[in-house]
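[recover] target loaded
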């Protein structure tokens, strides 16, 4: 080690007795290229790390999708009442605009000075005429936002989750495929920012787009559909990385109730289907079969659910209706 340290130290001369030996020649021929290679690799890695771009932000909560978080900062550490929040956002004027235009026109004082996330959601095909082909995300938010500020429904003091729902309902967070300028603030309503009146096939064409062209895009759907959509995107666009959030925007309970009691075997058999996992398995297979319906056109080859799920078998122990 003493000889090696002296070999690569330019400030110290190597003695003649050492320089003429075979050991010195072999060591110089072997270790000199290795030392140069290691030094260059270290410098290259260090420069690459210094010049590497900042890692992109991957929001895991719905709060991270909001462009302007100033309204949330106002509520930080403050127990604001529902009436105080209504005065802050001038909710009475918003309701008047909603009644006049049929669509919501949110607070024009909130400034969006940078690019927002684009939201993709399912379409509400099985809905009343006025909701037909509307993104399910928009339908849920408008309904929630209109009703959550009623005196008997809104919590007091106001919850942060309610404010997030209100801000995400701002149509400035435009829908994918909209050609309207969402920065024209007073024209930003659901009719302009969310052109759901287009034909169904046009809607499907909007979803049939490479994720590399989507830039900052968030897909919002029910929890049980997310994994199927994620698997479909990973199969079709392998070069793109996808991230799944951890937050739930609107939680609700869902179940079945049998009003008629008595000696009917239907409730017992229905419980058996759930306990055996039959209904859950059928639901997962159905979701996998329809995983591409919101992204691809009809002529696109669909993914066969049998590739992901093996055929289920029933024995005599499972009760069926």
């Amino acid at each position: 080690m003493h000889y090696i340290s002296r070999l690569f130290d330019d400030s110290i001369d190597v003695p003649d007795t050492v320089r003429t030996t075979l050991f010195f020649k072999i060591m110089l021929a072997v270790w000199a290229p290795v030392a140069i290679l290691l030094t260059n690799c270290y410098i290259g890695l260090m420069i690459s790390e210094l010049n590497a771009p900042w890692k992109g932000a991957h929001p895991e909560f719905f709060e991270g999708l909001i462009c302007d978080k100033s309204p949330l900062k106002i509520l930080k550490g403050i127990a604001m009442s529902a009436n105080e929040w209504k005065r802050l956002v001038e909710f009475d004027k918003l309701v008047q605009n909603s009644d006049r235009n049929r669509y919501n026109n949110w607070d024009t004082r909130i400034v969006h000075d940078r690019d927002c996330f684009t939201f993709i959601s399912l379409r509400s095909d099985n809905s009343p005429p006025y909701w037909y082909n509307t993104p399910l995300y928009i339908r849920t938010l408008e309904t929630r936002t209109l009703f959550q500020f009623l005196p008997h429904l809104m919590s007091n003091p106001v919850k942060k989750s309610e404010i997030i729902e209100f801000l995400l309902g701002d149509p400035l967070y435009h829908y994918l495929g909209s050609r309207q300028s969402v920065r024209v603030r007073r024209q930003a309503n659901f009719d302009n920012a969310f052109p759901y009146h287009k034909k169904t096939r046009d809607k499907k064409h909007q979803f049939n787009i490479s994720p590399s062209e989507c830039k900052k895009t968030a897909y919002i759907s029910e929890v049980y559909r997310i994994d199927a959509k994620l698997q479909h995107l990973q199969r079709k666009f392998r070069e793109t990385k996808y991230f799944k959030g951890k937050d739930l925007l609107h939680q609700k309970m869902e179940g079945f109730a049998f009003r008629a009691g008595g000696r009917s075997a239907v409730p017992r058999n229905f419980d058996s289907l759930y306990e055996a996992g039959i209904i859950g398995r059928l639901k997962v297979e159905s979701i996998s079969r329809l995983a591409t319906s919101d992204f691809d056109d009809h002529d696109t080859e669909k993914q066969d659910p049998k590739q992901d799920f093996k055929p289920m078998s029933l024995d005599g122990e499972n009760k069926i209706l």
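[recover] notes: The chain has three domains: 2-51, 62-249, 255-321.
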